[in-house]
Amino acid sequence: MKIRVLGASGGCAPGSPPSSYLIDGHFAVDAGAVATVLTLEEQSRLKHVLLTHSHLDHLRDLPLMLINGQRTKDPLQVHGTPETLEAMKHHLFNEQIWFEAFVIPIPMIEAIPLPVGRTTEIAGFRVTGFPLHHTVQSTGWLVDDGRASVFIAGDTDQEDCLAAVARVAGPRLKAAFLETSFPNAFADFAKLTAHLTPEGLGRAAKGLPPGVPLYVTHMKPGFEDRISEELRALGNPAIRPVKSGEIFEI
């Protein structure tokens, strides 16, 4: 499994596009940077997008990618919980913000609802959703290619979210991606907005088996150095920040 980090930021700044992960060239988890980073040819190969939740930094580029190519001949399949898909349709593809790509005579995009807690096959991967606490419904997705599995979480402040993933995945779990949005000094604001700090991330890491890497994402622009320093202070070599543009071979 090849994971290309298109964007790993909790916001957007030069060189730091928002959340999006491309797996094996044709399957993406979140769509914050799919049109910004991918070439037109690479965008045409992207057939499936799996959304963690409905916040803008996780689906920002989705409408823009739809107009780049022949999507009327090959609709993009967008997967997510029913609540996430409905929020996307109502607040983004609502005619005022963007055209209603789901309901035009030749749809350019197809919404495919997925339940959490059940495994579904998408594009050759077995995908299992885990509910996460956030200000809107958020989901972490365990993606398994038959040899290895990776967990990619949506936004959350839930410090016990990894233990259940580890139990379900077993020895095939090879990595987890989890957010840390604010430094420890912003713990009150992080709790208000349902995000993690390095201290909370450190507690979450205890749910993973020893040696499983925990890749830290969603750092807010301007806080990256402070968060990285506080992550190093945890003294856990399995924890490290992720940068946009990195590629992981799992």
How does this model look, in words?
The chain is of the alpha/beta class and about 250 residues long. It has one domain (about 1-250): Ribonuclease Z/Hydroxyacylglutathione hydrolase-like (Metallo-beta-lactamase, Chain A, 4-Layer Sandwich), CATH 3.60.15. The protein is built from nine helices and 14 strands. The protein has helices at about 35, 40-45, 55-60, 60-65, 80-90, 160-170, 185-190, 200-205, 225-230; strands at about 1-5, 20-25, 25-30, 50, 75-80, 110-115, 120, 125-130, 140-145, 150, 175-180, 215, 240, 245-250. A seven-stranded mixed sheet has the order 6-5-4-3-2-1-14. Strands 7-8-9-10-11-12-13 form a seven-stranded mixed sheet, with helices on one face. Helix 8 packs across helix 9 (about 225-230). The chain is globular. The relative contact order is 0.15. The mean pLDDT is about 95.
In short:
This protein is an alpha/beta fold. It has helices at residues 34-37, 40-45, 56-59, 62-66, 82-91, 161-169, 187-192, 198-205, 224-232; strands spanning 2-7, 20-23, 27-29, 48-50, 76-80, 109-113, 119-122, 125-132, 138-144, 149-152, 173-179, 214-217, 239-241, 247-249.
Order of strands across the biggest sheet?
6-5-4-3-2-1-14
For the biggest sheet, the summary is: 7 strands, mixed
Please state the second-level CATH architecture. 4-Layer Sandwich
Q: Could you name the CATH topology?
A: Metallo-beta-lactamase, Chain A
Rg of Cα set? 17 Å
Secondary-structure-derived class: alpha/beta
Average pLDDT value?
95
Domain count, please report it.
1
